[in-house]
């Protein structure tokens, strides 16, 4: 609770800070505020789960997910020192909005009431619409914002409709009550329940961009400022998947085998389709968008089998994924700070020579995402495979095939860095020293190495 | 454990130094590694069939991943090969002036560490991790320092082998889920896994495809010739000398015991594939004009014989396969180095552009001759003992297969002598290239190889003794299985 309040107040403060010309200290302030929030989070969880009138419950599980989100945000905030230079006038707003998104994340992953789920998703989404469009002079950014808004509005509609149907069948918004009433409700109102569940699922699928509800994602990722893309790919994905996982774990007595089949097909389609389409992308950010869609597919596979290990498996996956993704986007920001070039894969040409350190980190992050051992992405993917293989062998086979496909596009970037010849115009050295960016990529590299050597340290 | 750590530390160290010093560091490290390996060998009890020098540390217990290492006779031979070969490979790079030599050497050392890890691991998942880890440095070695068209070819190579490895991972997980009690990835537990019928066949095929891609066995060889040709000499040596032995080792150590209940009829298919590969590759080798391509295809042919011999799963076959893996590793490194020396001097690998090289390079011609004879399997060279055992095994298995695979010796003589003849004899071509004097590192590398060729040829028991008990143990482990 203290975390939520602190995040909210910091958000308002940042907005005012932006107005009163305190932009210089805002990143520092935000980092400190986030760190404090993180401290409060752990401090509270130390005294056991905190229950807010059955609306929000802060247990180990939500603490962990909030911690992932806050840590990712800290890294992104550090990046923002240089990252937002082109939108100077709205810098304070962006930081403030980031805090508000985090408030939404907190509500989403610790919801114990369908109303809070809805509120959480809305609190998360509305600031994001603005953030995506924050690069006002860029047509693509505007387009992305509008697209995201319209798609998000659709998703909200589905969510509300689904919640209403579930309410209609059970006469309550409370998760525990829904859970305990599920048997009788299923008997008396099977259609309402299953349609309601389906609608909520569709809404989630929109938010996490699972196939076939992913169409907004590549455009939005490509159009948004790189920092916002990183934020969406990590924090928002974590929140969406975390909330979805909680939804599944709580309502598992209601979920029929048909529903699981739908989820399995969605997962298979997400993995295969996203990886195949990513192969054809020339724009790096679009490629990363499809890559992040495909990772959603893997996580959905983990959600098919709900047992006591599921949260830690998903948690581990999200940590590794977030670290690697932030590392990649930070590198992208260092290479192409002001969006003056398009983000096609050729901007990486010869990076291995121009900046071996950047190339090394980018390689580690890409290898980690592609799941090649001994990088932690392998452990993450492997735990999911292992969990799913006994019940869904066919899905694991599809996952393995799509992993093999994904190698192709991750290695395109690596190939560009090390093997491609540098063309004259691109051979410019990286003139501007972006120390904050270097700090972020170093942190994510350390994180990945630690996770590779001690993959056991993350557990719920 | 030590064997894995030394190369990795050395790889980091080598990065710190500049060209010449880095070479010295890398060479010292690899020699030190070899010495450590010999220390292990001297303390190794060849009469003991158990896995020795075992150690185990927890890595990620939730996944059943332990850092478990151990050496048995078969692994010991492979380790010896790896560590001898790495010394040779680093020595052979002494005269090369690649841009970014330090990085190159450090990749070679990482590769060495990963290969040692593959042969040392007694944990299935750890085996897989090192198996994949070995792929990354070679990818960079071929991709950065390779020849023409390297990007496309390394891509093909990488995706091909990665797909195979994923199949292996699937098989490993599947076996893991069938281990008794609390599941475990330890080799000793995985062997006890209770898998029968078609499931066992599936596991067998998944493993087979993974290993067959690596070796490569016909028809999974399409990545090989191109990759060998574009790779820098040392990369080719790593690939052909050591890396393909990972596949052979995997078949003996992992595939066979894990899928012991699979129908023996599957092995008929594998052996036929291998034998087809022997003939097919040999015929192609005869027609190549690029020395490296000849050697690459000859490698497919030789490995086919090793695979056929091993998959008869009788003692001669296994022992011959292990011995021949060692020999082939040494010989093929020698041959590729010969090709490299010629290329350094006359700037081409095209056989039609060469001739009369023996005239101004007698020492070289002599050393080349011995290595070539070793490859052709002339008595008193190492190739003979290995191939003899392998052919013996295939004859015992099935006469026709034995006869067909026996053709390999003739074919091999044809394409090897053709290379020798075209390159070393005949009129000199007027492109100005001559062998001249060899440098000390070239002499040393070729010298060590020649000594090994003859020593193992005359005393094959040097190698055979090490693996003897382990092979017996493996065979007795399999008795009662469906394999005849």
User: Percent of residues of chain A in helical segments?
Assistant: over 70%
Order of helices and strands of chain A: HHEEHHHHHHHHHHHHHHHH
Distance between the termini of chain A: 20 Å
Average pLDDT, all residues of chain A? 86
The portion of residues forming beta strands of chain A comes to: under 5%
Beta strands of chain B, count: 2
Number of helices of chain A: 18
| Uncertain parts of chain A | none
Structural classification of chain A? mainly alpha
Largest beta sheet of chain A: what is the strand line-up? 1-2
Question: What features would you highlight for this structure?
Answer:
heterodimer; A: 460 residues; 75% helix; B: 484 residues; mainly alpha; 19 helices; 2 strands
Care to describe what's here?
The complex is a heterodimer of chains A (460) and B (484). Chain A is mainly alpha-helical and 460 residues long. Chain A has a domain at 256-460. Chain A is built from 18 helices and 2 strands. Chain A has a two-stranded antiparallel sheet with strand order 1-2. In chain A, β1 (50-52) and β2 form a beta hairpin. In chain A, α1 packs antiparallel against α2 (26-46) and α5 (114-132) runs antiparallel to α6 (139-170). Chain B has helices at residues 2-16, 19-42, 73-92, 101-120, 124-133, 135-145, 150-177, 187-190, 197-214, 224-230, 233-258, 265-287, 291-310, 315-346, 362-376, 382-397, 399-424, 440-458, 461-478; strands at 52-60, 65-71. The model of chain B has no long low-confidence stretch (mean pLDDT 84). The A-B interface holds A 309, 312, 352, 367, 372-374, 378-379, 382-383, 385-386, 389-390, 396-397, 400, 403-404, 407-408, 411, 415, 418-420, 455-456, 459 and B 58-63, 65, 125, 128-129, 132-133, 135-136, 140, 143-144, 150-151, 154-155, 158-159, 162-163, 166-167, 169-170, 173-174, 176-177.
């Amino acid at each position: 609770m203290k975390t939520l309040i602190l995040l909210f107040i910091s958000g308002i403060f940042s907005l005012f800070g932006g107005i009163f010309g305190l932009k210089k200290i805002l990143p520092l302030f935000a980092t400190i505020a986030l760190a404090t929030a993180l401290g409060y989070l752990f401090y509270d969880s130390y005294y056991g789960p905190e229950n807010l009138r059955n609306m929000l419950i802060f247990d180990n599980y939500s603490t962990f997910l909030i911690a992932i989100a806050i840590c990712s945000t800290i890294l992104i905030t550090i990046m923002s020192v240089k990252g937002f230079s082109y939108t100077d006038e709205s810098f304070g707003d962006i930081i403030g909005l980031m805090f508000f998104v985090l408030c939404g994340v907190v509500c989403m992953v610790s919801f114990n009431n369908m109303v809070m789920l809805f509120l959480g998703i809305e609190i998360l989404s509305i600031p994001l619409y603005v953030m995506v469009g924050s690069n006002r002079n860029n047509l693509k950014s505007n387009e992305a914002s509008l697209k995201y808004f319209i798609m998000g509005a659709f998703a909200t509609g589905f969510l509300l409709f689904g919640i209403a149907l579930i309410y209609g069948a059970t006469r309550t918004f409370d998760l525990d009550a829904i859970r305990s009433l599920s048997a009788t409700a299923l008997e008396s109102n099977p259609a309402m329940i299953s349609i309601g569940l389906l609608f909520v699922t569709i809404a989630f699928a929109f938010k996490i961009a699972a196939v076939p509800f992913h169409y907004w994602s590549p455009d939005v990722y490509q159009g948004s400022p790189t920092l916002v893309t990183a934020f969406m790919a990590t924090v928002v994905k974590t929140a969406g998947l975390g909330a979805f996982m909680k939804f599944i774990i709580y309502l598992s007595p209601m979920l029929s085998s048909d529903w699981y089949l739908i989820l399995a097909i969605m997962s298979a389609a997400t993995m295969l389709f996203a990886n195949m389409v990513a192969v054809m992308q020339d724009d790096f950010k679009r490629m990363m968008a499809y890559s992040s869609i495909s990772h959603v597919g893997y996580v959905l596979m983990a959600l098919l089998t709900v047992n006591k290990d599921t949260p830690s498996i998903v948690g581990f996956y999200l940590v590794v994924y977030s670290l690697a993704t932030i590392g990649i986007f930070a590198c992208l920001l260092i290479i192409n700070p002001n969006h003056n070039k398009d983000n096609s894969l050729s901007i990486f040409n010869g990076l291995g020579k121009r900046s071996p350190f950047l190339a090394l980190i980018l390689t580690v992050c890409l290898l980690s995402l592609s799941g090649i051992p001994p990088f932690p992405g392998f452990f993450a993917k492997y735990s999911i495979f292992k969990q799913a293989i006994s019940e869904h062998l066919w899905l694991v086979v599809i996952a393995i095939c799509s992993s093999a496909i994904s190698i192709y596009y991750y290695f395109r970037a690596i190939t560009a860095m090390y093997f491609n010849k540098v063309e004259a115009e691109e051979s410019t050295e990286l003139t501007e020293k972006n120390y904050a960016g270097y700090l972020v990529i170093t942190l994510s590299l350390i994180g990945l190495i630690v996770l590779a050597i001690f993959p056991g340290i993350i557990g719920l | 454990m030590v064997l894995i750590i030394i190369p990795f530390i050395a790889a980091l160290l080598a990065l710190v130094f500049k060209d010449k010093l880095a070479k010295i560091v890398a060479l010292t490290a690899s020699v030190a590694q070899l010495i450590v390996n010999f220390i292990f060998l001297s303390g190794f009890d060849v009469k003991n069939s158990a896995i020795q020098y075992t150690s185990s540390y927890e890595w990620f217990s939730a996944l059943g991943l332990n850092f478990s290492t151990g050496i048995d006779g078969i692994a010991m031979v492979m380790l010896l090969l790896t560590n001898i070969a790495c010394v040779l490979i680093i020595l052979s790079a002494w005269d090369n002036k690649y841009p970014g030599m330090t990085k190159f050497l450090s990749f070679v050392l990482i590769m060495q560490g990963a290969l040692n890890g593959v042969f040392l691991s007694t944990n299935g998942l750890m085996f897989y991790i090192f198996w994949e880890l070995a792929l990354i440095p070679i990818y960079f070695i071929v991709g950065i320092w390779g020849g023409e068209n390297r990007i496309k070819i390394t891509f093909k190579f990488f995706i091909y082998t990665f797909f195979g490895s994923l199949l292996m991972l699937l098989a490993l997980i599947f076996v893991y889920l069938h281990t008794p009690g609390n599941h475990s990835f330890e080799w000793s537990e995985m062997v006890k896994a209770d898998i029968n019928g078609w499931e066992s066949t599936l596991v067998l095929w998944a493993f087979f495809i993974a290993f067959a891609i690596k070796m490569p066995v016909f028809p999974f060889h399409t990545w090989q010739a191109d990759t060998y040709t574009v790779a820098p000499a040392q990369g080719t040596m790593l690939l052909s000398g050591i890396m393909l032995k990972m596949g052979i080792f995997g078949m003996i150590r992992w595939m066979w015991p894990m899928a012991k209940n699979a129908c023996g009829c599957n092995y008929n298919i594998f052996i036929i594939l291998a034998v087809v590969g022997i003939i097919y590759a040999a015929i192609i080798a005869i027609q190549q004009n690029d020395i490296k391509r000849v050697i690459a295809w000859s490698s497919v042919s030789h490995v086919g014989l090793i695979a056929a011999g091993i998959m008869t799963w009788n003692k001669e076959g296994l022992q011959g396969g292990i011995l021949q893996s060692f020999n082939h590793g040494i010989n093929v490194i020698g041959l590729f180095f010969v090709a490299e020396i010629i290329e350094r001097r006359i700037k081409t690998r095209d056989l039609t552009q060469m001739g009369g090289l023996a005239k101004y390079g007698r020492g070289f011609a002599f050393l080349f001759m011995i290595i070539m004879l070793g490859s052709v399997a002339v008595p008193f060279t190492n190739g003979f003992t290995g191939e003899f055992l392998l052919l013996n095994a295939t004859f015992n298995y099935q006469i026709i297969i034995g006869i067909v695979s026996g053709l390999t010796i003739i074919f091999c003589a044809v394409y090897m002598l053709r290379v020798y003849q075209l390159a070393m004899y005949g009129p000199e071509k007027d492109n100005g290239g001559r062998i001249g004097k060899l440098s000390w590192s070239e002499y040393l590398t070729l010298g060590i190889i020649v000594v090994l060729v003859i020593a193992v040829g005359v005393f094959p028991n040097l190698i055979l003794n090490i693996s003897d008990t382990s092979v017996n143990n493996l065979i007795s482990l399999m008795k009662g299985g469906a394999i005849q």
